[in-house]
Write a structure and sequence with these properties.
By secondary structure, the chain is α+β, with helices and mostly antiparallel strands. It is about 40% helix and about 25% strand. It has helices spanning about 1-15, 20-30, 30-45, 75-90, 95-105, 125-140, 210-215, 235-240, 260-270, 280-300; strands at about 50, 60, 140-150, 155-170, 170-180, 185-190, 190-200, 220-230, 245, 250-260, 275-280. The strands form 3 sheets. The protein has a 5-stranded antiparallel sheet. The chain has a 4-stranded antiparallel sheet with strand order 9-10-8-11, with helices on one face. Strands 1-2 form a two-stranded antiparallel sheet. A hairpin with a 4-residue loop joins strand 5 and strand 6. The termini are far apart.
Length: about 300
């Protein structure tokens, strides 16, 4: 506990520049006498920490002092490296030089272990550009204007105060306050067109537990049972995890919960005749109706 307090005190003084003994004592919930004892211990360890009494005085560390890598644990070092890698992966700024320097200091070799690509196998990286415009707008507290294509096929013009970029399941979204709807909303990045940051500022804090409080992100779901041919195993294991039962003939029975919307029907129909809806009857009938409409299109 003492060692942890020493490190925290160093970081705090490096950040604040100057603090009084009573301030430090209150922060760490110890006595002023304990703080002065800690200072003596740090000083004897070679840390240039000083205490000046009287008005305008306080406790401070010499300006040119730099923390040695030994003050950072193995876990601390790994977290710093991972943070820099994350910035490089999703940011336009190149942190490779800084990453290389710290990797040498920390004696880390494997610093190139993951990569993020915003494009799909068949699309360009347009989503990456949308990501960076929204990111910049969040940092500058500026609104964004865009056309949005929702799940019902409607197209609306939106002006939104962007608050947070979110990656959920397999897609990027951003969360913000929509000035048109006068409420918080999630927006899928791939459905955003004609995006631009506008010269309209805002001041708004990010609400806590954004997924729980935003009913508009929640989808109506339905319990469904699907039977896949064994040739579809790669797609089944891509999408489902614990809901799969393998039959003796190699076919795969999936009992799961899916969103009761176009996403579900698109997925089922994309599997062609390699999947059968076992239940519920209502979804089975809807697939029949949609298949008939498809046939009619090709017969006319």
């Amino acid at each position: 506990m003492k060692e942890n307090r020493y490190f925290q005190m160093l970081y705090l003084l490096l950040e604040k520049g100057n603090m009084t003994a009573p301030q430090l004592a209150k922060h760490f919930e110890v006595s002023v006498r304990t703080i002065y004892r800690d200072i003596d211990i740090l000083s004897s360890a070679g840390i240039p920490i000083y205490a000046i009494q009287g008005q305008g005085g306080g406790i401070f560390i010499k300006d040119n002092f730099v923390l040695n890598k030994s003050f950072l644990s193995e876990q601390d070092q790994n977290q710093i490296i991972i943070a820099l890698q994350s910035i490089t992966a999703v940011n336009q700024e190149d942190t490779s030089v800084l990453l290389s320097k710290l990797s040498s200091v920390f004696q880390k070799r494997n610093t190139n272990w993951f990569e993020i690509d915003f494009s799909s196998w068949t699309k360009t990286g347009a989503t990456k550009n949308v990501f960076h415009i929204i990111q910049s707008a969040i940092f500058k507290c500026k609104c964004v204007s865009f056309k949005y294509y929702n799940g019902n096929g409607e197209v609306t013009k939106r002006i939104v105060e962007p608050l947070k970029l979110v990656f959920k399941n397999t897609d990027w979204y951003f969360y913000g306050f929509c000035t048109i709807r006068c409420d918080y909303r999630f927006f899928k990045l791939t459905r955003i067109k004609n995006l631009e940051m506008i010269n309209q500022g805002y001041i708004r804090d990010v609400p806590n537990q954004i997924f729980k409080r935003c009913e508009h992100f929640e989808m109506e779901t339905i319990k469904i049972t699907l039977l896949f041919d064994k040739s579809m195993s790669f797609r089944v294991y891509d999408k489902f995890i614990d809901e799969i039962t393998e039959n003796s003939d190699g076919s795969l029975l999936v009992e799961t919960i899916m969103p009761n919307n176009e996403l579900m029907y698109s997925y089922i129909l994309s599997c062609g005749d390699s999947v059968e809806v076992i239940s519920p009857p209502s979804i089975r009938q809807e697939i029949i109706n949609r298949t008939k409409k498809i046939i009619q299109k090709y017969q006319t």
